[in-house]
Amino acid sequence: MDSPAENSPEKAIERWWLLLFAVLTATLSGFFTLITNVVPATAPFLALVLVIAEFLLLCVMIAALAYLASSRETKERIRNMLATQRMIVTTVVAGVVVVGVVTVTLYWWRRIVPVPDLIGKNLAQATMELTKAGLQPQKYIAPGADDFSPITHQEPSPNVQIMRDSSVHFVVGVLSATITINDPEDKGSAIHTTIVRGTSEGILESRGRLRANLLLKSLNADGYWIYGPLTVDAAGNWQHTVYVGQPSEVGKQFQLIAIVTQERLKAQGSEGGSPEYLEVPPHIATSELVTMTRE
Q: How many angstroms separate the CA atoms of 220 and 18, rounded?
């Protein structure tokens, strides 16, 4: 049971001042962290509601304190107000705990980000994307590569969820690939409409940075006809139709080669016409030459 001294108006006013100080300290620190660091980026309307709620709470506390300090109430009214004070303290503490839990949850939720897909991008593009995501770029430039060479490998993989400020390692390398013609065979024969089949590695992994084409050449004329680009499936297989010579060229020899380039070549598209290229375009990989006799 409270003593008369504890229930005096002076003691009540002192407790209300202490309560107001506690509310100011707890709510201002909790709401400041929540409103300035977390909420505006995720829910601006919620941030506004929290600011208004805090303002109203403080207005109620100050008004109650002013009323108590100026009124001449009986001891019974003082006891009732002290009971109300205890209830408010309990409510405020519970509210601060809830705000703290929400703050921590939202803080850590915002700290988790997906890793950007860097494959095929150059050094400047990769660095910009990682910095924007709040991640630390850790690069390795392979021999023969430069700042404009594409990213060929990264760790962690794209779209993996990691914490902000984590490091993402990537390799700035030289793209490589292989390509092989399996059919027709070298020193074989070919009809006018010939389906060429083969395999390739590194085309799909380049994410569109590498392209494969077929080059056809008559040994009796200069220049190459370009066919493609080749469509490589998930297993690395491809096939494409080429047009080998005219009826007047039966018995003559043609050469076929597959190449991998970084540049987009102007393809023949249909049979006939003049060769598009007098020499083999710049490339990073070629197949073996296949010599065919037109049937």
A: 102
Number of CB atoms found within 10 A of residue 17's CB: 12
Q: How confident is the model at residue 148 (pLDDT cuts 50, 70, 90)?
A: confident
**269 or 184: which carries more pLDDT confidence?**
184
CA distances (Å), 17 to each of 11, 67, 77, 85, 91, in order? Answer: 10, 13, 18, 11, 17
Q: Is 162 exposed, middle or buried (0-12, 13-18, 19+ CB in 10 A)?
A: middle
75: Cβ contacts below 8 Å, ≥ 6 apart: 4, 7
Whether 207 and 175 have beta carbons less than 8 Å apart is answered as no
Q: Is 220 exposed, middle or buried (0-12, 13-18, 19+ CB in 10 A)?
A: exposed
| 162 CB-near residues (< 8 Å, 6+ apart) | 112, 113, 115, 135, 156, 168
In degrees rounded to 5, what are phi and psi of residue 92?
-65, -45
Q: DSSP 3-state assignment of 236?
A: coil
In the chain the first and final C-alpha atoms are separated, in Å, by: 115
Give 133: exposed, middle or buried? Use CB within 10 Å, 0-12, 13-18, 19+. Answer: middle
Distance CA 179, CA 198 (A): 7
pLDDT of 130:
93
Any alpha helices (H) in 34-168, and if so which ranges?
A: 39-42, 44-70, 75-111, 123-132
What six digits make up the tokens of 194?
């010939």
**66-70, 143-147, 179-183: range with highest mean pLDDT:** 179-183
Q: What does the alpha-carbon distance between residue 229 and residue 258 come to, in Å, rounded to a whole number?
A: 10
> Which pLDDT tens digit goes with each residue over 23-65?
666 665 565 555 555 545 445 555 566 666 666 666 666 666 5
